[in-house]
Amino acid sequence: MHRPLILIVDDESKIRRLLAQNLELEGFDVQTASDGAQALEVYNKSVEKPDLILLDLMMPEIDGMSMLKRLRKSSDVPVIILSAKDERPMVIEGFPRRSRRLRLEAFLH
After folding, report:
1. In this predicted model, what pLDDT tens digit does every residue of 21-76 receive, in sequence order?
2. What is the spatial distance between Cα 2 and Cα 13, in angstroms, rounded to a whole number?
3. Cross-strand partners of 7
4. Confidence band (pLDDT; 50, 70, 90) for 81?
5. Region of residue 61 (left: phi > 0; alpha: psi -120 to 50; beta: else)
6. H-state helical runs in the chain
């Protein structure tokens, strides 16, 4: 049976670990990246592409929105944006109009 693969992209190691541990307990396979540059590298080198990406917006190197814009040139993998700040305009900008089924929820660190 296929275990869904989730790529977690967050610069905070505690958040990555917490998400990874909980998702693995729920039966998901997990990959992690600490910034957008590493996430693009992991995504491009992976034979099995993730079924979902959990993406933080504010990160060093390549931020989440820049990473998402680059990813959207070649992939329509579902993305859930995680952010401690209210960045609705930035989030909406990152999704094509046809796929703007957004549900914005607060995420507390």
Report:
1. 999 999 999 999 999 999 999 999 999 999 999 999 888 888 888 999 899 999 98
2. 27
3. 31, 53
4. confident
5. left
6. 13-25, 36-45, 64-71, 88-93
